[in-house]
Amino acid sequence: MSDTPEDLRHEIRQWLADNAPGDWRDQSTHEGFVASQRAWFAQLVAAGYAVPHWPGEWPGGGRSLAEQKIIYEELARADTPRLLLSFVSTYHAAATLMECASKEQAAHYLPRILKGETWCQGFSEPGAGSDLAAIRTKAVRRGDVYVVSGQKIWSTMAQYADMCLLLVRTSSEGAKQAGMTYLLMDMTLPGVSVRPIHQIQGDEEFAEIFLDEVEIPVSQRVGEEGAGWAVAQATLASERGLTLMELSYRMRGAMTRLVSEIAGTDRTEDRGVLRDLGALATRVDAVCALADRFLQKRMEDEEKIGDASVVKLAYARCLRAWAEMGVTLSGLSGQLHAPITYGDLNSGNWMADFMNSYAWTIAGGSDEVQRNIIAERMLGMPREPRGWKLEAGQ
Amino acid sequence: MSTMRRELEDSALKAFPHWEVVREREQARATVAELGWFMAGVPEDMGGLGLSRAELGVIFAQLGRALVPGGLVAQFLAVEALAGAQAFAGRDELLESAMAGEPLTASLAIGREGLEAVPDADLASHVLVRGVQEIALVALEGATIEPTPAWDTSRALFSVKPAEGGARLVLASGAEAAALNARLDELACLALAGDALGGASAVLAISIDYLGTRRQFDRPLAMFQALKHRAADLKAAIDTASALYDASSDARGTAMGAMKAHCCEVYKQVAEEAVQFHGGIGLTVEYPVHLFLKRAFLNRELGGSAGFWNERAGRALLEA
Predict the structure, then answer these.
(1) What count of other Cβ atoms lies within 10 Å of the Cβ of residue A380?
(2) Would you give the distance in Å from CA B26 to the centre of its chain?
(3) Which of A197-211, B22-36, B129-143 bottoms out in mean pLDDT, i.e. has the lowest?
(4) Residue whose C-alpha is closest to residue B135's, from B106, B108, B164
(5) Which residue has the higher pLDDT, A132 or A146?
(6) Which of A54, A71, A372, B269 could cross-link A61 (Cys pair, CB 3.0–4.6 Å)?
(7) Is A297's pLDDT higher than 70?
(8) CA gap B125, B102 in Å, rounded
(9) Bridge partners, residue A184, by sequence
């Protein structure tokens, strides 16, 4: 363990110089993606950089905010792959297990996450995206199992997952939120089938999960029956802040990709291009500063309703502008199809990154939902009238 | 920082509770002097309060929020120049009277030669003349001072031509002039960016109030999602720019200029939408939104335009 933040920076930079996988984009095609992600995750776990946000009793955990920032800054600077495959495991699943699950559940699953067990999240449904409380996947208790039937969608990396954070409906009485229950589901159980979703950029990052009379032991429930909504909130809150900070830093690090589109061309003296680049870089800096400030507020318990929405909206819109500038600068060559790489915002192909940027303006609460939260909760603008019904002929 | 920040904000709210309280530039200058703000950035051993740039930034945002009129940014620049000057006879007395609000002025047109866009030159005893090789405080006695009326009537701007052979106090020359010029550019950008963010927050708040009051189609305008979403985008833009502003108080050179350009673009965006939010009455002189709109556009040009700073920022990135 390092003594000062700058010692840590030196230490991780040295480690990355020796260990960062330089060729990850070539390996992160369909066939190699899972293996290269697992290998990189295992390396980070061994070195103590995989879960700096976990509590101190875990290897590499217990890092201060300043230390976490340094780790993310250096991972971004070294252009390392983002941990897409283990993202749900180390953030959503870990937070749920640490904050809401029983001691036995946490003790069973947390070490397995560090060994590479992959989790996915079964929240959204075809009829319940932003309106999460509208889920219909049904669980009926029969003895010491819940029998679950229904369909989940937009589950990131579900096709590779070992376990699933599953939100189900155990009752249709009362408020929509009141009848929800939270389960930990083994993806190998009979009745579970997964179908990847082919996305516009050629990736299959999301999948659908079909559940047909799946029997999940009651011991796999987190919290009480009917308390699933509150647990789900804890799950969703877990990644806010840190992730957006990491992503913002990665976007700042990836400004070098825009620069390399310009360097060595006659556009180095194109004042319009220079101005666009300068304005965008400043906007990226602003998003980083916003993410820093948000995290600081969280640490000091000063977060207000809507703050997280502002960060997500600002990041998502800036990412879109960033990728779009790359598409524009890359010209016709940027329109040529390239082998598909899982790289999130930084795959090496501008059009793929641009199309992927839509995920951030839609997933985890669309921009429109964030705007409603900001307008109603931060600016005090009134809600629209409730109880609206579609009339015949509309 | 946060206690001092709160104290500064509280005293600003007392002195300038609302945009229309102080509309007269000499009164505004006297109030700011009384609050001690002109001495805020001067080191304590020179008779100032020794506050940091971050704390000065709070002051500038408050001046912008209340649309405080006059050549206050120019006065802050002159004070900074005097405090950073090499010693000369009478420097301390001049600094002391400048901190007390005795008008000095300076051009706010960064990146250009000459003395255009000089606020309050008609009131000032001296103008700061910033050359590449030399920075001097030149007496305005006998100078040609032409008013250049701007759309933003909260600032009185002049074009100044000092008298030939007039009194000239050299504050810095050579490498020292370069360093002082950089400091002054940074301070001007910080001041204008703060003014922009204070103004943007204020005009958004005025607009939200209005949208909540004005009814159309049997409901308040504030209930329409088309308007709520635009207001939310503006709020997000202001928060983002304000995070950058807070993180940039000690930024240097181009980074500070690019920050200023960003904040001023956000002000322009918010002020433009504010006129639209107000509908027809946004076009009337009785409603204050046009004052913010005009100030936003002037702030964008003062201290170097977005084009000027963004081009530099882009070039710096290419050369990094």
Answers:
(1) 11
(2) 17
(3) A197-211
(4) B106
(5) A146
(6) A54
(7) yes
(8) 8
(9) A165
Residues contacting residue A133 through CB under 8 Å, at least 6 positions apart: A176, A177, A180, A229
| Higher-confidence position of B245 and B90 | B245
Local structure of B127: helix, strand or coil: strand
Q: Check whether A343 has a pLDDT greater than 90.
A: no
* Cβ contact A279–B306 (<8 Å): yes
| Residues of chain A contacting B262 with CB distance shorter than 8 Å | 279, 282-283, 286
| Distance of alpha carbon A242 from alpha carbon B176, whole angstroms | 43
A184-240 pLDDT tens trace: 999 999 999 999 998 887 778 889 999 999 999 999 999 999 999 999 988 887 766
Q: Do B236 and A289 touch (CB under 8 A)?
A: no
Name residue, tokens 């920082």.
B1
pLDDT in tens, B244-253: 999 999 999 9
> How far apart (Å, rounded) are the C-alpha atoms in residues A149 and A132?
17
Cα separations (Å) of A226 from A26, A219, A230?
46, 15, 9
CA B303/CA B155 separation, integer angstroms: 14
Q: Which residues contact B225 (CB under 8 A, 6 or more apart)?
A: A372, A384
Pairwise CB contact (< 8 Å): B244 & A282:
yes
Beta strands in B46-133 (DSSP E): 104-106, 118-119, 126-130
Q: Is the CB of residue B259 less than 8 Å from the CB of residue B280?
A: no
Q: Is A368 noted as a catalytic residue in this protein?
A: no
Q: Where are the alpha helices (DSSP H) in A300-375?
A: 307-330, 350-362, 367-373
- Find the helix or strand (DSSP H, E) in which A120 lies: strand A119-122
Q: Is the pLDDT of residue A241 over 70?
A: no
The CA distance from B239 to A297, in Å, is 13
**Residue B286, number of CB atoms within 10 A of its CB:** 6
> Residue A341: pLDDT band by 50, 70, 90 thresholds?
low
